[in-house]
């Protein structure tokens, strides 16, 4: 499950970079779109942890 989550995270980063038209490297966090992507990743991680709770 951890590998699947990491691949999803890397896919989000690469697709965001492709949409922004830049290389897939760390972008400055002051961009609103980057904050949206970080927020979406946080929501996905939270949902996965909530789903897998015992």
From TrEMBL:
Transmembrane segments: 32-50
Signal peptide location: 1-20
Keywords: Membrane, Signal, Transmembrane, Transmembrane helix
Protein origin, superkingdom: Bacteria
Protein name (database record): PEP-CTERM sorting domain-containing protein
Originating organism: Alteromonas profundi
